[in-house]
Structures are given as structure tokens and as C-alpha cells.
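Troubleshooting log. The previous structure file for this entry was overwritten by mistake, so regenerating from the original sequence record. Sequence copied from the archived sheet and checked twice against the printout by T.R.
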Amino acid sequence: MRRLIQILPGLVVIAGLLVTCVPGSYAQSAQITGRVTDPSGAVVPGVEIAVTNVQTSVQKTIITNGAGIYVLPFLVPGTYKARIHKKGVP
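Regenerated output below.
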């Protein structure tokens, strides 16, 4: 499932979220992956992506790499709220 998120007033950044569930013998896990770009399509490194599981309130955070890519693996399947922030941008 892909979702586009607009963030950062003054600098509109789009991040694609991909959630994948992988059933296992004893447990299930999911991951959220994506790439952050600006309106011109240029990648945006150094963006903080924080996701919070709505049911458990557990939060995981990662920073996009030099190619604007992020991967948040080993998440409990569920509904997540995303917060995306670029340091220095209000």
C-alpha cells in the first residue's frame, strides 16, 4: 500500500509509505519503507521519519539516507501515525 504524505510548510516533501506484512511461524512483522523527495523530484536526505503504533503508542524513528530512503523494519502489524520533520525547516 502506498500513501503520499505532504509535509514541512515552506518545503513540500513527499514520502511514499509502503507497509509489508510478513507472516512467520510464531509472529508477524511489518516494515515501512519510502523515499523522500521535494516537488522537483530531488531526494531529501536527513529527514526524520517517526512512526507511532496507534494501539500500543510504541514509537520508532529513522533518518533518511543520502538517497532520501528510509526503512523501518520489524514493526508490529497495525495502524501507525507518521511524523516527518526536516531539521531547520519549520
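The radius of gyration is 13 Å. Archived copy saved in two places this time.
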